[in-house]
Amino acid sequence: xxxxxxxxxxxxxxxxxxxxxxxxxxxxxxxxxxxxxxxxxxxxxxxxxxxxxxxxxxxxxxxxxxxxxxxxxxxxxxxxxxxxxxxxxxxxxxxxxxxxxxxxxxxxxxxxxxxxxxxxxxxxxxxxxxxxxxxxxxxxxxxxxxxxxxxxxxxxxxxxxxxxxxxxxxxxxxxxxxxxxxxxxxxxxxxxxxxxxxxxxxxxxxxxxxxxxxxxxxxxxxxxxxxxxxxxxxxxxxxxxxxxxxxxxxxxxxxxxxxxxxxxxxxxxxxxxxxxxxxxxxxxxxxxxxxxxxxxxxxxxxxxxxxxxxxxxxxxxxx
Length: 319
Ligand code: SIN
Known about the structure:
Elements: E1 10-17, E2 23-24, E3 33-34, H1 40-45, E4 55-63, H2 70-84, E5 89-95, H3 101-111, E6 118-121, H4 134-145, E7 153-157, E8 160-163, E9 168-169, E10 178-179, E11 187-190, E12 193-196, E13 221-225, H5 233-240, E14 245-250, H6 258-269, E15 274-278, H7 301-312
Parallel strand pairs: 1-4, 1-5, 5-6, 6-7, 13-14, 14-15
Antiparallel strand pairs: 2-3, 7-8, 8-11, 9-10, 11-12
Helix pairs in contact: 3-7, 5-6
């Protein structure tokens, strides 16, 4: 669907589903809803303040993002690249579920070169809620996609702007569900204007080699949690079943239970790389002198899984 032309260029909104596109039987319900029920065009129609802007919509998927998959990621990356290449396109907005937003954002940051803004947004409350957060988030995301000088994969949510690599979901219910940890937000919206705190991220796309492979052939990387009483059984099983890489979600500063560490060493001896990350939501892994396994630094375990997959497909390890 195309809205009226505008001399400020076109913004393309790609819908993938999520709570922002969710509908519930009751306006009081924040949890019992069907995610991804509405299309991107439906979401746009619910924001009168966007009428008259040059905006195109395209439905890429209508998923609950807990079901996000590699084939949808590949299609999304391809559609974003196609739209960014159009001279009249000012930026791209992606509506998404919050549950795997940090994974999709990081994947796109590493695989899509974005000399124009690529803005992901989402909502914690369905479109039918009394005070749905989706319309304002979509409005802000479209404004961000038009922001002069903005580049890279960005996340606009709850009035704040985050870099894709910094994002983590920190709450399962509250509207303020995201944080950027020690990195902090890049900017925030104040009465429709953007107050910048620091520079835009890099344009990204340094690990696009993966996209040359069919999604079914992307290297399989599994996440294994370290915890009290951990054994190496799950890690051994993952390797036996063909995992090409393992990310351990370690305790604290990425420490690993001795039994799990023994299994990690068995995997490395068989040529399967094992990276360690932290199961703490904030802080990541600070690299010390006695590091036993490569560290995923500030990445969450879920982002580290993507980073290792990209690395196994020929991409550089993350900086
Ligand atoms: C989803 O991730 O698709 C559902 C949950 C949400 O968007 O908040």
